[in-house]
């Protein structure tokens, strides 16, 4: 209950504007319960972030269809990623905005989560796992950052572009990471 309350409040009011007392009130729990489960607000933010990442990753994995050609498969997963963020703007705010720059441990969690979220996409882009010509790690990080920035820009523009336009832009980024023969 605390994590769901944190996602709602961090996503609507912001992490720095939301105290432990407000989260406990939103969850209908006491501060004692909070401190029995979390050492501080940053620990709850990390737990909320982990929950958001798990939900987004689930949608990406559900959308994956290894029987499809690479482009169709990748576009389906990109569509699931962006559609999930658009459908849950408060959750998207926690994932995209509120988490950044809070704490070094959280920054590491962001790096890990970007890798986890992009893993199905990159598996689709390189289905043969071609060893030495495998997707370059630095290029992969660049594409992950690009996908994140597309999501940030789309949310900042209140999701004005169509999902298809956003997926098309993201697909172009993904194509740059495809290993060449």
Overview of this structure, please?
It is a single chain. By secondary structure, this protein is mostly helical. The chain has a single domain (49-177), classed as Tetracycline Repressor, domain 2 (Orthogonal Bundle). Helix content is 75%, strand content 0%. It is built from nine helices and no strands. Helix 4 packs parallel to helix 7 and helix 7 crosses helix 8 (137-156). 29% of the residues are buried.
- Our count of domains comes out at 1
Count all strands and give the number: 0
Q: Can you identify the CATH class?
A: Mainly Alpha
Strand content: under 5%
Distance between the termini: 50 Å
Low-confidence stretches: none
> Quick check: average pLDDT?
88
| Overall CATH architecture | Orthogonal Bundle
**SSE sequence, one letter per element:** HHHHHHHHH
User: Rough shape?
Assistant: elongated
CATH homologous superfamily title: Tetracycline Repressor, domain 2
Instruction: Report the structural category.
Output: mainly alpha
Question: Helical segment tally?
Answer: 9
- As a percent range, the share of helical residues equals over 70%
């Amino acid at each position: 209950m605390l994590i769901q309350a944190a996602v709602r409040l961090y996503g609507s009011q912001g992490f720095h504007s939301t105290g432990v007392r407000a989260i406990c009130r939103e969850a209908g729990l006491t501060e004692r319960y909070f401190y029995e489960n979390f050492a501080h607000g940053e620990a709850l933010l990390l737990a909320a972030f982990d929950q958001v990442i798990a939900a987004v990753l689930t949608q990406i994995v559900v959308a994956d269809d290894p029987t499809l050609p690479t482009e169709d498969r990748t576009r389906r997963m990109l569509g699931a990623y962006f559609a999930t963020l658009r459908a849950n703007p408060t959750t998207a705010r926690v994932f995209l905005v509120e988490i950044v720059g809070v704490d070094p441990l959280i920054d590491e969690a962001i790096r890990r989560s970007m890798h986890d979220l992009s893993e199905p996409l990159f598996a689709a882009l390189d289905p043969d796992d071609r060893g030495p010509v495998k997707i370059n790690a630095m290029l992969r990080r660049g594409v992950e950052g690009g996908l994140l920035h597309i999501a940030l820009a789309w949310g900042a523009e209140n999701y004005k572009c169509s999902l298809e336009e956003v997926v098309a832009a993201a697909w172009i980024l993904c194509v740059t990471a495809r290993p060449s023969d």
